[in-house]
């Protein structure tokens, strides 16, 4: 009798916890602000390699133990770069020794050009790979409208014409095909490493060689605390971007990704191919090219992951673990720029 009572009590407690979890997950998904503040209580995990230094060709020894409140490495041994885990002076020297040219690509199509491009480029000149050779590639349907931004020594701007797509979703998805072609052409000959970024953001702090690696993924600012089962991966099994339940490591943001030219050729080929397959089936992944990017990084683990400090949304508010944001999202004025 006592056993049955205890079993019933356990079952009641179990289902209450399940209902509480479902309720909180629903509130998280629909963005209730007070729950957003509570998600910081969800632990990020502990780096299994935190007791010993990680080494990196671009940062020298990393110190994962320096940030015990956040996850500083992945299960496959890639570092997650947070402020305080690297020495920026060492990273700068390592890059200088390798005599690098670093590419930065951005698409400025339609009203995104007038609204965001000038500030993006001006702040990049102040903060992106300062002291390194940089070549900017701006893809737009209106090359003559690209603003003139004074560039420092060893820094160049290239403008490439692209066709304007009918829908903004198509601009997003065609990016991968266009990047693949550019990486196989002049961009791939000029730069050794390349970062691909969205234009509707601006630099607010040093974005330096500590971010370089063979392949680089960016933790999504809105999802880095969420449990894996809540992450917004593509779940339609018919899509080439689909991940099955239990698959996926982190949710990565397509606003920032990078790596060597060879690695990015592989990434963009994968994403463009998946988009073609979906289009042939009359499908469109939930988050467009970002869904395909997440599928790629599940199959081919990134060599380095950037913390949300490298691409932060001010709409989330202040977080103690976000010490020094490098990129800040611009306000999302979709009604204006997507009209």
Automatic annotation (TrEMBL):
InterPro entries given in the database record: Glyco_trans_6, Nucleotide-diphossugar_trans
Cofactor binding note of this UniProt entry: Binds 1 Mn(2+) ion per subunit.
Cofactor: Mn(2+)
Gene assigned in the entry: A3GALT2
GO cellular component: Golgi apparatus; membrane; vesicle
Binding-site positions, UDP-N-acetyl-alpha-D-galactosamine: 107-109, 112, 198-200
A Pfam family reported for this protein in Swiss-Prot or TrEMBL: Glyco_transf_6
Family: Belongs to the glycosyltransferase 6 family.
Keywords annotated in UniProt: Glycosyltransferase, Manganese, Membrane, Metal-binding, Signal-anchor, Transferase, Transmembrane, Transmembrane helix
Subcellular localization(s) per the UniProt record: Membrane
CDD domains (alphabetical): Glyco_transf_6
Primary site of residence: membrane
Annotated residues for binding of Mn(2+): 198, 200
Gene3D superfamilies: Spore Coat Polysaccharide Biosynthesis Protein SpsA, Chain A (3.90.550.10)
Active site positions: 290 (nucleophile)
Binding positions for an alpha-L-fucosyl-(1->2)-beta-D-galactosyl derivative per the UniProt entry: 220, 290
Stated name of the protein: Alpha 1,3-galactosyltransferase 2
Topology in membrane: Single-pass type II membrane protein
GO molecular function terms attached to this record: glycosyltransferase activity; hexosyltransferase activity; metal ion binding
Biological process annotations from GO: carbohydrate metabolic process; glycosphingolipid biosynthetic process
């Amino acid at each position: 009798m006592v056993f049955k009572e205890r079993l019933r009590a356990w079952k009641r407690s179990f289902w209450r916890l399940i209902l509480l979890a479902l309720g909180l997950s629903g509130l998280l998904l629909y963005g209730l602000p007070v729950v957003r503040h509570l998600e910081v209580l969800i632990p990020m995990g502990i780096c299994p390699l935190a007791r010993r230094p990680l080494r990196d060709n671009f940062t020298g020894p990393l110190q994962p133990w320096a940030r015990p409140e956040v996850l500083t490495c992945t299960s496959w041994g890639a570092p997650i770069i947070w402020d305080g885990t690297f020495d920026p002076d060492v990273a700068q020297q390592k890059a200088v020794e390798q005599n690098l040219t670093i590419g930065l690509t951005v698409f400025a199509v339609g009203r995104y050009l007038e609204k965001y491009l000038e500030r993006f480029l001006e702040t990049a000149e102040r903060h992106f790979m300062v002291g390194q050779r940089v070549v900017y590639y701006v893809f737009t349907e209106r090359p003559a409208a690209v603003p003139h931004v004074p560039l420092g020594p060893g820094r160049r701007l290239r403008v490439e014409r692209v066709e304007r797509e009918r829908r903004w979703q198509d601009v997003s998805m065609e990016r991968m095909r266009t990047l693949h072609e550019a990486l196989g052409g002049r961009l791939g000959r000029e730069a050794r490493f390349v970062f691909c970024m969205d234009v509707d953001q601006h630099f607010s702090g040093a974005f330096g060689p500590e971010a370089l690696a063979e392949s680089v993924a960016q933790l999504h600012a809105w999802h880095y605390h969420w449990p894996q089962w809540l992450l917004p991966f593509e779940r339609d099994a018919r899509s080439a971007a689909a991940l099955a339940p239990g698959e996926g490591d982190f949710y990565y943001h397509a606003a920032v990704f990078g790596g060597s030219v060879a690695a990015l050729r592989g990434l963009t080929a994968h994403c463009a191919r998946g988009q073609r397959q979906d289009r042939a089936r009359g499908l469109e992944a939930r988050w467009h090219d970002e869904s395909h990017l997440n599928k790629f990084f599940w199959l081919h683990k990134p060599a380095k992951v950037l913390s949300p400090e490298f691409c932060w949304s001010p709409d989330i508010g202040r977080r103690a673990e976000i010490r020094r944001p490098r990129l800040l999202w611009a306000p999302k004025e979709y009604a204006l720029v997507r009209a």
